[in-house]
Amino acid sequence: MRELYFKNEIGIDFKLNKNVIISSIEGLGIIKENTYFQYGSKSEMFTTQSPISQVTLDLIFFEGYQGYLSFVEYIKKSKVLYLYYRAVDEKYCYVEIVELTKGQLEFGVLKSILRLDKLSSWLKKREIEIDVNESSGAKVYPYSYIHTYDASSNGKIRYFNYGHNPAEMIIKIVGHVSNPVMTIKQYGVILQTMRLLLSSDGIFEISSVSNDAYIKRNGVNIYDQQDFTCTNFLKLPIGESEIYFESGVTSETKCYLTIFEEYEAN
User: Fold this and answer.
1) Half-sphere exposure (CA, 13 Å, Cβ side) for 203?
2) Average pLDDT of 8-28?
3) pLDDT digits over 195-228, tens only?
4) With contact defined as beta carbons under 8 Å apart, do 232 and 215 qualify?
5) Residues 1-29: what's their mean pLDDT?
6) How far, in Å, CA of 228 to CA of 81, rounded?
7) E strand or H helix that includes residue 72
8) What mean pLDDT comes out for the span 29-48?
9) DSSP class of residue 242?
10) Between 20 and 30 A from 90 (CA), which of 124, 184, 223, 229?
11) In this structure, are residues 172 and 204 in contact, taking their beta carbons and an 8 Å threshold?
12) 112 closest CA partner among 167, 171, 142, 70
């Protein structure tokens, strides 16, 4: 059984399955804008992108005007709005209200059409922890840094990105670090590297989310303390990859990943 509902930036839900139900829905599929090169009688795709598309919901408010006004009040108080879709699993997308019609009250029921601009792919949020253990003995990393780790805490995981696009993520490191490094490998090849140039403790967060990218320590911007020869804002490729983390110290350090898999359709 499928379920749709809204959630705002502070986590308050508005359900669409009890006093407000959906009679029909459109816009959950794929829309692409393609550019082609033409070669005689044949064409070949040059670029493709996903434009802003619309989701249209036909709503029935069983509580009449009162139910309608409750939804309007919810929209007015929400600065950011997400549409959640739960079937086999749960995904969500960023949306903006384009239009909410107001029909006539008939037998205590009010019908309305809600049109939404869909501002993102469908996202599936996954949260994982890298098991960080102490590794003794000299260890030289395969980068162009003149740096040797005599003993440090490190960990690795394998992750399969089932999405249709590279997955943005937020890295959260808790504890003491010294020039921490994270790398992403696929098929034995290093694709991306994140490295901070600092020795300190605290809570470090590195976000590659396109509309909210940052590098922070205890909530304070430390953008200038990244190694600018590295990618730093990491994205997981489609398919299976290996994620390696090196804290640079022997003390216990925690490393968490919040991964946002992207899907073109739901």
Assistant:
1) 6
2) 92
3) 999 999 999 999 999 999 999 999 999 999 999 9
4) yes
5) 91
6) 34
7) helix 64-77
8) 83
9) E
10) 184
11) yes
12) 70
DSSP characters for 109-145? EEEEEEEEEE-S-EEEEEEEEE--EEEEEEEE-SSS-
- Tokens 């359900």 identify what position? 15
Residue 4 phi/psi, 5-degree rounding, is -120, 140
Which residue matches tokens 């029921």? Answer: 109
Residue 50 has phi, psi (to 5 degrees) of -100, 110
Position 251 pLDDT exceeds 90:
no
Predicted confidence at residue 234, as pLDDT, reads 98
The structure tokens listed for 189 are 């090849």
Task: Please enumerate in sequence order all residues whose Cβ is within 8 A of that of 228, keeping only pairs 6 or more positions apart, or say none.
Answer: none
Domains of the chain, each with CATH number or no CATH: 3-120 (2.40.30.200), 125-263 (2.60.120.860)
Residue with tokens 């549409």: 83
| 84 DSSP 8-state letter | E
pLDDT band at 146 (very low <50, low <70, confident <90, very high): very low
Q: What pTM, to 2 d.p., does this model score?
A: 0.85
Report CA dihedral (197, 198, 203, 209) to the nearest 10 degrees.
-20
Neighbouring residues of 140: CB distance < 8 A, sequence distance ≥ 6: 147, 148, 149
Q: Which tokens go with 259? A: 């991964």
The pair of structure tokens assigned to 228 is 């600018």
Q: How far is residue 257's CA from residue 260's CA, in Å, rounded to a whole number?
A: 10
